[in-house]
Amino acid sequence: MEDVCYTTQETRDADEHAAGLSAWDQRYEQISAGRFDGHVEDLRVGPVQIFVETASRAVFQCGMPRAGSHTIGLMQSKEEGGWFCGHRLDAENMIMIASDSEFDLTAGAGMCVTGISIDTAHLAALATQLRGGEHAVFPARGPCVLDASDAVQAGLRSLVDTALALARQQPAMLQQPAAQRMLALSLSEAVLEGIAGDRREASVRPSAAARRRILNAARDYMRAHADEPISVPDLCQATCASRRALQYAFEEILHLSPVTYLRVMRLNHVRGELIARCEDTVGDIAARWGFWHLSRFAADYRQHFGELPSATRARGAARLVSLAH
Q1: Range of the structural domain that residue 302 is part of
Q2: What pLDDT was estimated at residue 99?
């Protein structure tokens, strides 16, 4: 077993939050207005990674999971559910992501995500030992929502809570090879049960799949032309969708109109650059992302993030200084 790696982090913006989960390649956008407060707790023990993350604001996230892994995610929503790769999420859901599949998730404000990510090779070897190869080869499928019972989900959450409590309160115990092996084994067996071959997958409705396709195509176009004036007809042409279909896709999945999302996307890019590019002026960064009226930009920025651009710039500069030392 490898040494244990445990981190916990309080986050103030979506980019910082996305980076808090080790070995994942993901991007976050804050899509609801207000100050962002997040928490990420991440524990790696050999082939197993477990984490819990919460965010005070609704976010849209996409990317790739940890390489060479299968991940179970337990979603708990406080307000409206959300969307995961075309699946509508309810109050509680269990999702699965394989490392060769890109995913996207719209998470409502206050949603809690509990994750168990395990090396696929380790899972396959354990399945062969326990079940004679019955589940040794995992099906080649994209991200999905699993039809797991409340008992299965509660058992997985309990295991994660126990492991994280151990990392917080008795870290020396997790340095013991026997404790590491037993923790990895119990979590791996629980995940195998969660993705057992007879577990039904929730299906994606054709209408939901179409709206996800429209949304993704529109977002790709927006990113590629973020510094240009973009109209709804431009998006309709880029997505081969009607104005009504475009509107429905954005409002159902993101709870925003296409025009509002475009502004939110640009604001998120500005925020990231204010933190990372201290050599550029606020005006230069804002103009690069299509904001040419600085007073209006500052008001929009403050309304969405709960602080002025200058405050974000100051925190970014302080972060760079602390990293340099």
Answers
A1: 206-324
A2: 85
